[in-house]
Amino acid sequence: MNNDIRTYHEAQSEEDRIICDRLFQLIDENLSGSESKVWHAHPVWFLDGNPIVGYSKLKGCIRLLFWSGQSFDEPELKPEGKFKAAEIRYTSGDQINSQDLKRWLEKSRMIQWDYKHIVKRKGRLERLV
Question: Where is the YdhG-like domain (predicted)?
């Protein structure tokens, strides 16, 4: 865990820190070859510079966001925003289903929309894989 992510975790309440620590562990173990860093104030993992997954503190929960998650065909992930992102929210560490998260991470590698070049394409997304 890099220092910026560690600092992010340390700033959370005890329960939120438990959630963040568990998410970090599962993502880091199951998204090999990724780069993780604090991006727009929260931890995000990238593959070849394309944002894949991240989590952030919202009022009353920790949100796990998959940038291409709407294309995963997973009912537990709810659409977020006007592009292809989908989320799930946690209020307790025991809500995290590691098998679901591993499956979503596998899909996140196989199903990607090109957020890396969204500005260059003037807000238009193209499917990468």
Answer: 18-107
Domain that holds residue 88: 3-110
Q: Quick one: how far is CA 29 from the chain centroid?
A: 14
- With 0-12 / 13-18 / 19 or more C-beta atoms within 10 angstroms meaning exposed / middle / buried, residue 123 is exposed
Count how many domains the chain has. 1
In sequence order, the β-bridge partners of residue 61 are 58
Tokens for 123? 């807000």
Does a structural domain hold residue 67? yes
pTM over 0.85: yes
Rounded Cα distance between 39 and 28, Å, is 16
pLDDT value of position 1: 87
Location of structure tokens 């340390």: 10
Spatial neighbors of 15 by CB under 8 A, at least 6 apart, are 91, 92, 93
